[in-house]
Amino acid sequence: MRPSGRQPEQTREIQLIRDYTRHAEGSVLVAFGDTQVLCNASVEAGVPRWLRGKGQGWVTAEYGMLPRATHTRGAREAARGKQGGRTLEIQRLIGRALRASVNLRKLGEFTITVDCDVIQADGGTRTASITGGCVALVDAIRHLQREKLIKGDPFKQLVSSVSVGVYKGTPVVDLDYPEDSAADTDMNVVMTEGGGLIEVQGTAEAAAFSRAELDTMLDLAEGAGAELFARQREALGIRA
Amino acid sequence: MRPSGRQPEQTREIQLIRDYTRHAEGSVLVAFGDTQVLCNASVEAGVPRWLRGKGQGWVTAEYGMLPRATHTRGAREAARGKQGGRTLEIQRLIGRALRASVNLRKLGEFTITVDCDVIQADGGTRTASITGGCVALVDAIRHLQREKLIKGDPFKQLVSSVSVGVYKGTPVVDLDYPEDSAADTDMNVVMTEGGGLIEVQGTAEAAAFSRAELDTMLDLAEGAGAELFARQREALGIRA
Amino acid sequence: MRPSGRQPEQTREIQLIRDYTRHAEGSVLVAFGDTQVLCNASVEAGVPRWLRGKGQGWVTAEYGMLPRATHTRGAREAARGKQGGRTLEIQRLIGRALRASVNLRKLGEFTITVDCDVIQADGGTRTASITGGCVALVDAIRHLQREKLIKGDPFKQLVSSVSVGVYKGTPVVDLDYPEDSAADTDMNVVMTEGGGLIEVQGTAEAAAFSRAELDTMLDLAEGAGAELFARQREALGIRA
Amino acid sequence: MRPSGRQPEQTREIQLIRDYTRHAEGSVLVAFGDTQVLCNASVEAGVPRWLRGKGQGWVTAEYGMLPRATHTRGAREAARGKQGGRTLEIQRLIGRALRASVNLRKLGEFTITVDCDVIQADGGTRTASITGGCVALVDAIRHLQREKLIKGDPFKQLVSSVSVGVYKGTPVVDLDYPEDSAADTDMNVVMTEGGGLIEVQGTAEAAAFSRAELDTMLDLAEGAGAELFARQREALGIRA
Amino acid sequence: MRPSGRQPEQTREIQLIRDYTRHAEGSVLVAFGDTQVLCNASVEAGVPRWLRGKGQGWVTAEYGMLPRATHTRGAREAARGKQGGRTLEIQRLIGRALRASVNLRKLGEFTITVDCDVIQADGGTRTASITGGCVALVDAIRHLQREKLIKGDPFKQLVSSVSVGVYKGTPVVDLDYPEDSAADTDMNVVMTEGGGLIEVQGTAEAAAFSRAELDTMLDLAEGAGAELFARQREALGIRA
Amino acid sequence: MRPSGRQPEQTREIQLIRDYTRHAEGSVLVAFGDTQVLCNASVEAGVPRWLRGKGQGWVTAEYGMLPRATHTRGAREAARGKQGGRTLEIQRLIGRALRASVNLRKLGEFTITVDCDVIQADGGTRTASITGGCVALVDAIRHLQREKLIKGDPFKQLVSSVSVGVYKGTPVVDLDYPEDSAADTDMNVVMTEGGGLIEVQGTAEAAAFSRAELDTMLDLAEGAGAELFARQREALGIRA
């Protein structure tokens, strides 16, 4: 039995609120249950130095957690003077995932930075960030098109993400914090609408996991993906 | 004429939403018009090293701005590896202001940290932070009392803050960003309900200001204070 | 009774020694009693990146305290790896104050950096820094004129600063350390010769202060200003 | 055809040289072809603060790359003043993987730090680090037993790691740098001798990968695992 | 011919002004001609962690240069966020040199930190720092004795330092900046009154130097030492 | 009697293995007995900003120590966030020494960086780094010539280095760690083949040393130099 009473294959309530703040070219508040992340996509002319003159754009992400997004207050990374390893690892993952949504050549020499800031955490902040960040990214691309700053459409495909794990021996999807902190295995899956895999990151927390368990978890992720892509399309007004 | 069409003595719409997130002992979203700041007050047992064994508590504040709270994206301070001078100056001001609300002796050896994170900026983020942070602080103190962690009541008085300035020759209150960026003089005032002054920080941006202008600005701040204290009491369910 | 035996409206002995070191374009040792600050103004061609091509110059300040300028040794900021919040706040104040002395358009694309390094501290280091820094700044401007690097005169007006506060219930001017550490209210005022105000920063350390106390303190500052401007003019050989 | 002429299921030559340096309690030079990593396991009494008094030990890893381990010189992280995101991500992975080898309760209050420093890089430095680091870790545990610092045997199981990927459409194992930089998909797998999975980290570099490709890649990793565990047992003098 | 007109064996005018500032237990302004360094010796109870419980004290030094001590302004190390290699090298040298003056066992568990801050630089700042720092150190020791914080006398011997070099083919002593920046060889020598050597640091800037040149330079340093020790004894009121 | 049984004038076994790793333009493993340092010389087009357009090249060095190169594990400098004073001092010494080998004008606008990373430490890591680094530097220069990137020969002379010291009253050469940690005096000498001195850095650890002892130590260094230059020439295939 899951602490929340959910079925193993049941995600939390997913919300995607567009235009959440007014300055960003794309601004989405994503909620996976009590996990809330503000995803702001910012468009800037130019690309990082190492990409200059290559005729392509860049998509990157930064991740942060408000100090009291969690049960106990965490030290502010700006005050500690550096981003922790977990933060860097997560923002690298988000960036890679979101780049799978975009044809960088068609983006032209623009950089889109997607800031994912966790307002409230209850497990799954990186998967929510990817799912919400992708919607913000689409809005930023639409802004570029509307402003006629680019020709053509650099948008390739929607990308979404969900966690799966083995909790008390049962594979379950979209773990909340009580499940996440007690799970034997924890896996984050990033998917495309067409059923392709972008990232699979599985970690045995206690005992090793088997190929069979891996398969069951991937099935769960695939099932949840249908729900996530529906929510993204709905938010963006895209037909399936 | 103010860009927003407001009268010189008219503040923006002030909102104070308590229990905005679920983990913090006090959590308030404060809005001064389009300026939105999340103020989370966290209670931790113990005090900083230099206060240990002195039989008193501590109240402090930290301030941050989400990278895209502003018109153009600002670099993330955690990524740059340090908090800027403006950030440090603001959080020192908020901390001093909030300590005027509390009898630190009666607080006992607890530290309350008030994190003020700007979700959306449109001028006046420090005054909104103080005004909202004070409400979050009261909730954190109530938590300590409810949990019977302290005896007595360390709460002394409400504290609120508003900006005043001279915009195109006219003294006005609660400047928004278009006014703030064009003002000749900019002053932040922190007040108590009884009409006392906690902080007065006036800066001539272009020409010097006169004693007469200072007086007019303080009158405006005092007037706005009535409104701010009413909103704080209303939010907290305190009678005047 | 003040610890030093001074009258409430009496400043400490003010000294301004020009050409104190030999490399800087302006070099002034300023003493407010036992508080001694070396103010070196350095001229450099060019302006910060964000000002380039705007046809104007820049004036900025940096502030530091020798580790043993104070009663007990403070950690060296260079060794700790960052400037503290107090340091950044003070140098931002000094910079803003000194810019009120200069017409940046007439300065041309030069940057003048005024380094204020505290040799010995006894209260009022920031007000001494502004008062002495302004004299060093004038010398740096004269250097630019003498070397025919600029045409016209970017100097606008003298700026000086003094602290006022409420010590044991009595408003006093130019607080020394024993007063400063015991004062109920502490205010730093930056003024122009014409009686204008550039900065007013008042802080209630213990109890709030009233409008009436604020007025008395501003009167005291104004009175001390006459003395400070006389010393600046005298040092610079300017007639009143 | 692979650039090295290897078969898809063929690893590079694997070497594990124990006692490579003389100070560390476990010191192993591991080579996966031209990739060479020095893995030094250091035993220190005590555990990190957050584990004190819990009656268990700790195993952690740090990872570094000599500046000229790669084709072009990379900046020295010590000189840049921080470890990059890639470094932190890799050392977190190595640490998690190695902890799967050890019963931390039986380790007692000792910390074993495994430093993995890349002498020469040609792809697969993290998988070599885990495979070699595990052997160094076993030597460090044997040291604790030999010195009678612990009773019982905290060693649980060997852990090894290999990369798999899709290179020009063909799934291959143990990618070298030319393959790695051109691969469509790149996956690192950490395994136990019993066939269990500890970590699976797959990333689509260009196109998404399918469940079928994932399965083929895991088969390849499993096959290489047999070779890796044989080399580890051989180096340590353990019978299968 | 030396730029200053001095003879090869002639030092600049040496001044040692004690009690230069009022807070430090030892405070000496040392001048070697136009090079001026403020040396403040601070006494603190306790020793660094690695010396605790060993029944001995510690003497250490920190070195800094005011940003405009030099011809052109140097970046403030506190603002850059770290001390440069040159600074660290110099303060390590000063610390080692000064420890030769003291019997650390007899000092007891006190730390004396000698801060050497360069007010004005004209070559030889490290040798002036050692020479002046030693006098400040003696004053700090006397303070400990006067306050009866220690028994016995930890002072062992005076230590002084001077630079020597080969300038346009001629060995000279106590190089000023014009000589220093043009010298073929530059050597700093730290000596005891008894003719012993504490540090010899010679560097060929252009061509290598010979054993014969080294000998001549050491003779020059020895000659200057007589002058330096006389000045130190004179300042401290010690008979030869 | 030396702990190793060596004669006072006897160096440890010196090894210089060229082409130790495959990416660097010059790669030498140098061993002075158990002290092993990997010296990689990297060629990069361009020079530091302050040398641009001056028609010359640059040679610099960086130094690092693997965390477990020593008896007890040292903190990783990259993780601590800065290079220590000892590291910076050593790499500045190595850089100066190696520049004595090269005619920077003839090098053209190339930078050669020599990374000296200590794999195993047993005293004398800086002298081994210079001796091995010089061989790597020669290989890097040969690479530039072979690739016809420069005309002419920027190589001037071989440079080598050895430590000397007074151990239990006897001057000895090439101190290993047990000698180094107990020596009264420690001196590092950098020499040219022609008998010239590049650097002499002598430090009294306990008692001061005399001119006579200095002379004896320099004689020992000169004697060892013959051996070191022979090994360098042998490794490089240069006739005496």
From TrEMBL, chains A, B, C, D, E, F:
Highest taxon listed in the record's lineage: Bacteria
Summary of subunit composition and partner proteins: Homohexameric ring arranged as a trimer of dimers.
EC number: 2.7.7.56
Gene3D superfamilies in the record: GHMP Kinase, N-terminal domain
Function statement: Phosphorolytic 3'-5' exoribonuclease that plays an important role in tRNA 3'-end maturation. Removes nucleotide residues following the 3'-CCA terminus of tRNAs; can also add nucleotides to the ends of RNA molecules by using nucleoside diphosphates as substrates, but this may not be physiologically important. Probably plays a role in initiation of 16S rRNA degradation (leading to ribosome degradation) during starvation.
Name assigned to this protein: Ribonuclease PH
Positions contributing to phosphate binding: R86, G124, T125, R126
Domain Exoribonuclease phosphorolytic as annotated: residue spans: 10-140, 158-222
Cross-referenced CDD domains: RNase_PH_bact
Family, per entry: Belongs to the RNase PH family.
UniProt entry keywords in alphabetical sequence: Nucleotidyltransferase, RNA-binding, rRNA processing, Transferase, tRNA processing, tRNA-binding
Name of the gene this protein is made from: rph
HAMAP family according to UniProt: RNase_PH (MF_00564)
Species assigned in the record: Modicisalibacter tunisiensis
Reaction catalysis annotation: tRNA(n+1) + phosphate = tRNA(n) + a ribonucleoside 5'-diphosphate
Pfam families tied to this protein: RNase_PH, RNase_PH_C
